[in-house]
Amino acid sequence: MTTAPTKVAVIAFNGITPFHLSVPCLVFDAAPAGRFDVRVCAADGTPLATSAGFAIATAHGLEALADADLVIMPSWHDDCSPAPPRLLDALRGAHARGARVVGLCLGAYPLAEAGLLNGKTATTHWAYADQLALRFPEITVDSDVLYVDQGTVLTSAGVAAGLDCCLHLLRQQCGAELANVVARQLVVAPHRQGGQAQFIERPLPVSRSDGRFADVLAWVGERLEQAHSIDALAARAAMSRRHFTRHFRQATGSSFKQWLLVQRLAQARRLLEGSDAAIEVVAQQSGFGSALSLRQHFKAALQLSPSAYRKGYRI
After folding, report:
1. How far, in Å, CA of 306 to CA of 295, rounded?
2. Which residues, at least 6 apart from 313, have a Cβ–Cβ distance to it below 8 Å?
3. What's the rounded Cα separation, in Å, for the pair 147 and 163?
4. Contact indicator for 129, 105 with CB cutoff of 8 Å
5. How does pLDDT run across 233-276, given as a tens digit for each residue?
6. In angstroms, what is the C-alpha Rg of the chain?
């Protein structure tokens, strides 16, 4: 049975930064042919001016939102100016008929103005988060995270977080393995948890001790089914427990316990997608120990049981 492609409408506007516009296009165009139908549409008449000094033309207007499954606002004006009423109406209409609507970086502002974030938690670039909270008090603004998935609406922090958010959507649609392949093609981290901090003080190894630390993370990633203690890993990295814990937080933006859970969930998803192993076996091989533990963590993270998740990848 052939599955219809997911229709993605990416909204451009006069003055857009081309790199912001390219983020969702890069991610979804990298999926296998036929999985996504990506259409860049204009909120204004074309050609559109860009911040890079050249113009772009689009083949679609806001009518592309009428049948889109996924609507992405990749950014917005730096002055966070009000969006035109017809854009707001198009966003509301798409959301009302069941499309998922995404605001990357400052793209959260038009979603907020359209009322799509009322009563929800959202994020945006940390430098504009306070302004978002002040202008739209109905929204709970979390400036400390990379992206927030509220089901029918998603928001992300800055450009790199926009990539993370789009990879998160790709992972939901096509599975962890394909999302990892696309991430490798883009040379970005295959999975950064949405709740990870926006600002990471030292994201890449820059010294000999950093290199040992990275080796330890890789070593753990190859042995997720085993138990791991901070004391043992600190010794392997030739660090004190205190130094290792502080270094881990600086390098990953999360605690070791949180990081390990994310890695184990990703491993479980890969096994569920690509094998017929029993749930108990998946639980053991991904480090959860028991099917009950896997189900509990899966439900908490994805609002699905492992069996229901696997069923989504059996066409």
Report:
1. 6
2. 175, 272, 273
3. 10
4. no
5. 999 988 999 999 988 887 777 788 888 998 898 889 888 888 88
6. 21
